[in-house]
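Question:
Write out your own:
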Amino acid sequence: MTKVSIAELVAGAKAGKVICFPTDTVPALAALPENAALIFTLKQRDINKPLILMAADSEQLWDFVKGSQEEYKIWHQIADKYWGGALTLVLPASTKVPKAMNPSDPTTIGIRVPQSDIARSILAQTGPLATTSANLSGQPPLQNIDEIETEFPNVLMATTAYDNKAPAIGIPSTVAKWDGRTWRILRQGAVNLDI
C-alpha cells in the first residue's frame, strides 16, 4: 500500500488506480467504474460477484439505474430513509454502467451512499466508484491499516482518512434486490430493511 494525502488519493483514483478508504461499514477498495476489472484481479474475485457503485449522494447514482416512474418513486423513498447508511440497493442497470462492474449480469447494479463523512468527501471529488470490501475474496473484511497494507501493498491509501473518524461497524452493508415488485434480501448486513 502506498500512503498518500487525500488529494493524491483522489488524483490516483481519477488516474485509474485502485484506492482504499474507510466507510461506515468496512474499509473499501475502490476504482473508477470502467476500471472495475482491476479490483476483480486484485481480490481474486469471481466475476459472478458484482461490485457496488458507491457515491457521495443519491443524485450521483440515479443515472446508473433504469425503471418506471413508479419504481423511481419507491427507490427514492428507500434511499431517503436509509442513505447515507449500510444499505446497498440492487436495481436494473442503465446503459451508463460499464460491463466491468458486473461482468456476469450487466443488467443489474448495486448502489450505495455511505454514512461516513470521509468516504463521502472522497467520493464527492472522484465521482461514483466501483467498490468492495478490502480483503481477498472469501476472506473476512480487513479492519485496520496494517492488515490492508500487508495484503494490498500497491493500493493507494490516505492514512489521514483513518484519523479522528467514527469507527466502522465492521459489518458489511445489507444488500436488497428489487425484483420488479418488492425487495429481496440477498445479504443481511447492518441494516434491517423495513419493507
In short: The longest helix spans residues 69-82.
